[in-house]
Amino acid sequence: MDKPDLRNYSIEELKDLMSSLGEPSYRGEQIFHWITCKNAITFEEMTDLPKSLRSELSWKFSLNLPEVVEKEKDVDGTVKFALRLKDSNLIETVIIPERDHYTLCVSTQVGCPIGCKFCVTGKIGFKRNLEVSEIISQVVLARRYLKEKGEILPLRNIVFMGMGEPLLNLQNLIKALKILAHPKGFNYSRKRLTVSTVGLVKEMEILSKEFPVALALSLHAPTDEIRKRLIPVAKKYSVEELISVCKTFPRIKNGRTTIEYVIIKNVNDSMECAKKLAELLKGYPFKVNLIPFNPHPELPFERPSQEDVERFQKYLLSKKILTTVRKSKGLGIEAACGQLGAKFLKSLAPNSMYKKSALGTG
Ligand code: SAH
Ligand code: SF4
Q1: Pick from 194, 77, 91, 84: which is nearest to 145 by CA?
Q2: What one-character-per-residue DSSP string does 53-87 give?
Q3: Are β-strands 258-263 and 155-160 bridged in parallel, bridged antiparallel, or unpaired?
Q4: pLDDT digits (tens, 9 = 90+) for 25-52
């Protein structure tokens, strides 16, 4: 039987665990500190614990890190890791360089059950939710990698925009967020932890009550009619309803809720869409992030021209809506938004058109 992984434990649970082993509870805090901000991967490293406790812990518990099966670096500095979990499932995690820091894009599920029409992960289907330890270990792995490389810039932002829909793995997500934000642990500011969701109203409400962090809503369309063509779950929740839930979501340190909008040629890139979007968002400090669609041979859409994207952006800016265009990072290694899992897709469908096309996109 697998030994329990200590990265699944909160600081309180570690303290209780230590008491149950007849140790003082502060040992739990020491262990928490080692496995979070000190990025420990063995019990041996925990030099302020008695030797006997270190060996007891190592027979009873584990501190698994997934195996790196592939590491690809793009010319723009983006690094994508393909990671094998203990049951052999594969996930991906991506380190994205920014001007003065790094951002990590983490996965929360193997595959995704939502099945958005423009997303490679959605095409894989759903395998399972990640455990808390599997979410946290992506962060530990990335921090160790940057440290080993001698990088001085910090890994400052964590975005839950990798494989999967974070709010469908809600309890593990919330526990992982609490561990990431804990002042005695990684101590990430909640403002720098961003959960991106396709828009699940009930779960957004629970997150807002239990542990609000920065929120990004994947809206992608200003009307229900267009949204339903792209996102199956749009049948359940209307655009209006999603916007009103965002307005009630706590704003961390006055941060803005991001509206993500994958902009797709001839689907949602018209001026009429821009006008409707501006109307929908007016009067509240949203930030729109336009993500030009990242094409893939398995996906039936096209990327709009840069001029069309700029026209769309200009219109929103003219209506005083803060709007940025996301630079596609990691396109050359299929690490850009919505492309995670492309390799698994290839292995799942060996005869698909993906195989016939040239490798790599963008
Ligand atoms: N499931 C969550 C988080 C993971 S997807 C969500 O949907 O928000 C992260 C972001 O990548 C989402 O905004 C998603 O819409 C976007 N994305 C998916 N496929 C894409 C593609 N082909 N091109 C550009 N962005 C894409
Ligand atoms: Fe799932 Fe997000 Fe991809 Fe939609 S865009 S299929 S919700 S990962």
Answers
A1: 77
A2: HHHHHHHH-B----EEEEEEE-TTS-EEEEEE-TT
A3: unpaired
A4: 999 999 999 999 999 999 999 999 999 9
Closest ligand 1 atom, residue 114 Cα: 1
- Kindly report the CATH number that applies to the domain delimited by 6-60: 1.10.150.530
What is the sign, positive or negative, of the torsion defined by CA atoms of 331, 292, 135, 189? positive
For 214, the token pair is 């920065």
**pLDDT for residue 338:** 65
What are phi and psi for residue 159, nearest 5 degrees? -115, 130
| 8-state DSSP, 139 | H
Q: Which residues contact 197 (CB under 8 A, 6 or more apart)?
A: 165, 166, 167, 203, 204, 215, 216, 217, 218
Q: How close is the Cα of 198 to the center of ligand 2, in Å?
A: 7
Single-letter residue type at 263 = I
- For ligand 2, the distance from its centroid to the CA atom of residue 208, given in whole angstroms, is 21
Q: Are 47 and 34 in contact (CB under 8 A)?
A: no
Cβ–Cβ under 8 Å, residues 303 and 338: no
Answer with the residue of higher pLDDT: 338 or 117: 117
Fold agreement between 6-60 and 67-359: no
SS3 of 255, please? coil
CATH class, domain 67-359, is alpha beta
If pLDDT is split at 50, 70 and 90, which confidence band does 328 have? confident
What is the CB < 6 Å shell around ligand 1? 118-119, 161, 165, 196-198, 218, 260, 262, 291, 293-294, 299, 337-338
At 35 the three-state DSSP class reads helix
Domain assignments of the chain as residue spans, ordered by start: 6-60, 67-359
Determine how many CB atoms are found less than 10 A away from the CB of residue 274.
Answer: 26
pTM of the model: 0.94
